[in-house]
Design brief:
Blueprint (H helix, E strand, L loop, with lengths): L3 H4 L3 H10 L1 E5 L14 E7 L2 E6 L5 E7 L4 E2 L13 E4 L3 E7 H10 L2 H26 L2 H12 L1 E2 L4 E3 L3 H8 L3 H13 L3 E4 L2 E4 L2 H9 L1
Antiparallel strand pairs: 1-7, 2-5, 2-7, 3-4, 3-6, 8-9, 9-11, 10-11
Helix pairs in contact: 2-3, 5-6, 5-8, 6-7
């Protein structure tokens, strides 16, 4: 699957971008990059969720954001001498594209229009981060979790399903696993969702939309 930021390029630039970006699978319970690593590679999420986090003064994990399909991370690779400054942890097995700094420099110098594509990707990432910060500041856990469920749900054999763990949903909603488990139980009592083994069945997506907008 070729992402939009490549397919919208002129034919010659698209062909070069398809050569530069290589696909690979990043497994759950691994790390794509570490804070001290030199930022030599840019990543694009084709499918899945990657949590970006840092460690606080007491070695506690501080989630910066969670990037999903259509997002980039490791943007330090677009600048010389940068380090990632964060951990990148796949929440599920993810399909990613990667491109080295050297290939990106050649691509952008030869095809200036690709610079516009990267600016749009960075702008989208910034907008999502700002929205996450607003939600954390002004919304309670329930609407944040409803939004996370809507974002993560996918068609399954029994309907709309979410296969992320409670901890993963906590990362998406900016909460704790214990609180998320409690709120999920409340949604299940209202028959908005159905809790199952390693999956959540969304019974009333419209009700979740109303909650998320509150």
């Amino acid at each position: 699957m070729t992402p939009d930021f490549i397919t919208t390029l002129p034919p010659e630039a698209r062909a070069e971008a398809e050569r530069v970006f290589r696909s690979f699978t990043a497994r759950r319970n691994s790390y794509v990059c570490y804070p001290e690593d030199e930022a030599k590679t840019l990543y694009y999420v084709l499918e899945g969720w990657v949590r970006l986090f840092q460690l606080g003064p007491q070695e506690e994990e501080i989630t910066l954001t969670v990037v999903g399909a259509g997002d980039i991370f490791g943007e330090g690779a677009l600048l010389p001498g940068e380090r990632y400054g964060m951990f990148a942890e796949p929440l599920v097995d993810c399909e990613l594209l990667s491109a080295s700094r050297e290939d990106l420099l050649r691509l952008t110098s030869r095809f200036p229009e690709t610079q516009t594509a990267f600016v749009l990707l960075l702008s989208r990432r910034l907008r999502k981060t700002e929205e996450r910060l607003r939600d954390l500041r002004f919304k309670e856990v329930l609407p944040r979790l409803a939004k996370a469920l809507l974002t993560a749900m996918r068609p399954g054999r029994e309907g709309l399903e979410v296969t992320l763990s409670h901890q993963d949903l906590a990362h998406l909603a900016g909460s704790t696993r214990e609180t998320v488990t409690k709120v999920l139980g409340e949604l299940a009592v209202d028959d908005t969702i159905e809790l199952g083994y390693r999956r959540i069945l969304v019974l009333k997506p419209e009700a979740l939309k109303q909650i998320a907008a509150s």
